[in-house]
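Internal ticket - ligand job 327, PMV:
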Amino acid sequence: MKRTAHVASAPAKVILFGEHFVVYGTPALLAAINRRTTAKARIRDDDKIIIKSDIGASAEYTKTGFKILQGGRKAKAILDPIHDAIRRARGEHRQSTGLQVELKSDIPYGIGLGSSAASCVASIAAVDSLFDSHGKNWICDRAMESERIIHKNSSGADCHVSTYGGIMQYSKDEGSKKIKAGKQLRLVVSSTGILHSTGSLVERVRKFREANQRKFVGLSEQADMICAKALQAIELGNIETLGLLMTENQQLLKQIGVSHSKAEALITLSLQAGALGAKITGAGGGGAVIALARSRKDSANIATSTRKQGYETIEVQIDCEGLVLGS
Ligand code: PMV
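stdout (structure tokens):
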């Protein structure tokens, strides 16, 4: 058991293709991006688990309950899966000592960029390394279990990409497989400013599927086909085709009811500014939009144009490292 603080960090992600349909078994394509959450864990002398995060949510968990230190009721929803992750990691080492975990993040929260998965992955890794290190597969599996606290149908895609990094194909049955891109992907991520709850959007799609079973099967087949073509386009570096496929994927997301007028406005704006394609990323219902740019200049133009309209936009690069241990 180590008394010094241990640090781990994990990246944010975008879903390039296949969100929502991945919950029902079709593959998705994801990419880790260069935004991170860093978790610093240390042993406490009591039996409390204290989580402090720089997004304004902090809480103290004891055997009998919890106390919000910062952030009100919203803090509980954010911190519960992280608390579960920390307890899980500690429990598997058969330890019961108190722990303090401090989280620092530059991942925008609640817009589909995987901030929750990155926090779980980084926290588990930091706590794990206090006792002994299990390795990435173990950490990813534990993080997936904790993520299911927020929405029980979670596909697990976010945890995989945050743990292993890079660009990957993910499916519930087959797990993740890294993809080598033939050309650098330049992505521009803009926020609608509307925070979403992944759990309720997944539930909205579940109801849509229940009420439109035949239609959903057809849409899933289309999503599957788009993913297969997109995989090929990424490997061949055919970014024009990739852009068109992104916009095609967006039409499916619109049909299952997870787009939003602000997301549509951002997509139009990005395409008018020269994007090769654009779509929502993640659960939708607001959240974030990704746009694919042909060049660095186009990427800057798209960002300028969305920022001019008051949207928060970041130009991102692919993170190839995934989970990193140490500061
Ligand atoms: O939490 P988000 O916004 O990154 O969305 C997760 C992606 C979904 O496909 C909607 C759900 C899932 O579990 O894969």
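Auto-summary: The radius of gyration is 19 Å. Residues 15, 19-20, 22-23, 112, 114, 154-155, 157-158, 198, 202, 282-283, 287 surround PMV (CB under 6 Å).
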